[in-house]
Design goal:
Strand content: 15-25%
Mean pLDDT: 74
CATH topology of the largest domain: Immunoglobulin-like
Helix content: 25-40%
CATH class of the largest domain: Mainly Beta
Low-confidence stretches: 26-44, 173-186, 192-196, 338-343
Order of helices and strands: HEEEEEEEEEHHHEHHEEHHHEE
CATH superfamily of the largest domain: Immunoglobulins
Distance between the termini: 117 Å
Radius of gyration: 38 Å
Number of helices: 9
Largest sheet: 5 strands, mixed
Shape: elongated
Structural class: alpha+beta
Number of domains: 4
Number of strands: 14
Strand order of the largest sheet: 2-9-7-4-5
């Protein structure tokens, strides 16, 4: 081949190779030099998966009263995690509570629904976290509107008429004899007065039950009395008010509760520490069973170990319970130097 032909062939090959080099190529993740942008992990990593559950399947609560719902969140780093608890009434009105989980995942939300709305409420709890996988929990609760309070029975008009007749008769016939006037009072007026007092106070069977329970259990609050004696809200309100007006009992508001005491008993000294019903129940269990473990307490009261652990920790922090480690077990004792208000 001639030299000119060789030079021409080499030149053409060089131009073709150079043109191929500058032809745009489709981007590919496998192409060397191409870095694909990372795909965002919307579900989050496995350690960021949260499961929120309620510790009870529902319940019945009184409209207008304060009540608490407890639950637990499972996952990594749950200490301080925000939990949103949303309660919706049958008419669509919503109540939102933002709470935080403890180190063991236990959380508590407080609600106070309207006084005049009852029915089936839907409550949903979820972890307040972004870009993580999470599982919510929903329960149904019943909210009951208490019946209107019964009106106190007034003194019948006939009693006033008899009283007026007695006064007129006494002033005309026996005004000069004090003993005769006293005798007439015993004959006519005192039986009527005694009958009114008996009907309104302790001779009433249910009212006598309520009074006896308060004498035996001073410091019990309204809901605990109602649940123990199985009476309606209207009936209990009426009889408690009658007993208090007539001077048989007295009451005092302590935290969110109104507690009742016999009239002759002094109010316990307020230590500034308020305990829930569950915590008071646990203290009573500690008095009945010496040196139990957390598992023993949960078994005795029919509650989960998570609930027992949460409340025992609060009681220990507030100085009502002492804990001692024996091997792998933790043994709990009531600290006699501390006693919650109302016990």
């Amino acid at each position: 081949m001639r030299p000119n032909a060789v030079i021409l062939t080499v030149s053409v090959a060089f131009v073709l190779a150079l043109s191929l080099f500058f032809i745009p190529q489709e981007s590919s993740a496998s192409s060397p030099g191409f870095i694909s942008p990372p795909t965002p992990d919307i579900a989050g990593s496995p350690q960021d998966f949260y499961t929120v559950t309620f510790l009870s399947n529902g319940g019945t609560f009184e409209a207008g009263s304060v009540f608490y719902l407890e639950g637990q969140v499972d996952g990594n780093s749950v200490d301080g995690l925000h939990i949103t608890v949303l309660m919706e009434d049958p008419y669509g009105a919503q109540y939102r509570n933002l709470t935080r989980a403890e180190s063991d995942g236990i959380w508590v939300a407080m609600f106070q629904p309207a006084e005049d709305v009852g029915g089936n409420f839907t409550v949903t709890a979820s972890a307040d976290a972004i870009d993580v996988s999470k599982e919510d929990d929903t329960i149904q609760i019943d909210v009951v509107v208490p019946p209107p309070e019964e009106e106190e029975e007034g003194i019948p008009v006939v009693y006033f008429q008899l009283g007026a007749l007695f006064a007129a008769f006494a002033s005309m016939a026996v005004a000069s004899t004090e003993s005769a006037g006293f005798s007439l009072f015993n004959i006519f007026a005192f039986p009527l007065y005694s009958r009114i007092k008996k009907d309104e106070v302790l001779d009433h069977f249910v009212r006598g039950q309520i009074y006896g329970y308060i004498v035996s259990n001073p410091g019990k609050h309204y809901n605990s009395i109602r649940q123990k004696l199985q009476v309606t809200n209207g009936t209990l309100s009426y009889h408690l008010r009658t007993l208090e007006v007539q001077g048989f009992i007295k009451s005092r508001k302590e935290s969110i509760y109104r507690r009742f005491y016999p009239i002759e008993m002094k109010f316990p000294r307020d230590k500034g520490v308020k305990l829930s019903d569950m915590q008071i129940t646990i203290l009573a269990a500690l008095r009945r069973r010496p040196a139990p473990t957390q598992k023993d307490i949960a078994s005795d009261l029919g509650i989960s170990q998570q609930v027992a652990s949460y409340n025992l920790r609060i009681l220990t922090q507030k100085g009502f319970v002492l804990v001692r480690k024996e091997g792998r077990k933790r043994i709990y004792y009531q600290d006699d130097s501390g006693s919650p208000t109302g016990l």
